[in-house]
Write a structure and sequence with these properties.
alpha+beta, about 30% strand, three-stranded antiparallel sheet
């Protein structure tokens, strides 16, 4: 085998490997770190705090979520906001517009906050 054939074989192997990596990345599912837990479309992680007082060492685990919650059963920011906003029966819907770059006409979408604190696409 001469240098040209060897170079061609190495080139083909590199192309094949790069194609395999690109294909595997496109097919792969979303992976979570073991400490990250998806909760109602929010991501939470467990923070471990170790403190020492004198001869005592204490280990404390706290759950911290992306929306500011500290426990599973606490209401999130939008649940509290919707409870405050919709306390009056005459309140109009709280809506926001968002970009839709993949839409055929590039028009913005509209999402409104429900009374339970969930966002609903209109």
């Amino acid at each position: 085998m001469n240098k040209d054939e060897y170079g061609f074989i190495v080139f083909c192997k590199l192309i094949l490997l790069s194609w395999v990596f690109v294909w595997a990345g496109a097919v792969a599912d979303e992976e979570f770190h073991p400490k990250v837990k998806p909760i109602k479309q929010q991501y939470c992680f467990t923070k471990i705090i170790i403190t020492t007082k004198g001869d005592t060492v204490t280990k404390e685990e706290k759950l911290i979520c992306a929306d500011g919650r500290k426990n599973f059963d606490e209401p999130g920011y939008w649940e509290l906001f919707s409870e405050f906003y919709y306390r009056d029966t005459n309140a109009p819907s709280y809506c926001r517009y968002y970009d839709r770059p993949n839409h055929a006409f590039k028009t913005p979408g509209k999402a409104c906050l429900t009374k339970s604190g969930d966002w609903e696409v209109q």
